[in-house]
Amino acid sequence: MGRLVAPVDERTEHSFQMDWEQHVELDSPARLTNHSCEPNTGLRDNTDDGYDFIALHPIAVGSEICWDYASTEWESIAVPSCLCGSARCRGASLGFRYLTQQQVAALRGFVAPYLITTAGVGLGTP
Questions:
Q1: Which PROSITE patterns does this entry report, sorted A to Z (predicted)?
Q2: Number of structural domains, the chain?
């Protein structure tokens, strides 16, 4: 679903982090997806230098497609105040580095590969 459009020199609120120093713009509809602290999709690397959005459970027709920005962003700039409305809302999506072990476990393995190499959570800079 998310194919590479172009690498970006600086991250934006619409770019996706692919590695420690790499942010990219992905094509639509990936570019139009939103954050949720209790998402209905998880992201996995694909062969188009982007991410595939994998349904975590059946998604009803007309439902918004959303994912947890912390699953790809070490430190997020996109959601300083979260409005997802989930019972599990964290109030903000600050990035993977700020997640607890329990929150990381809730991502069910849908975490950007570069983040998996991190020895723990909340370690500061890589």
A1: SET (PS50280)
A2: 1
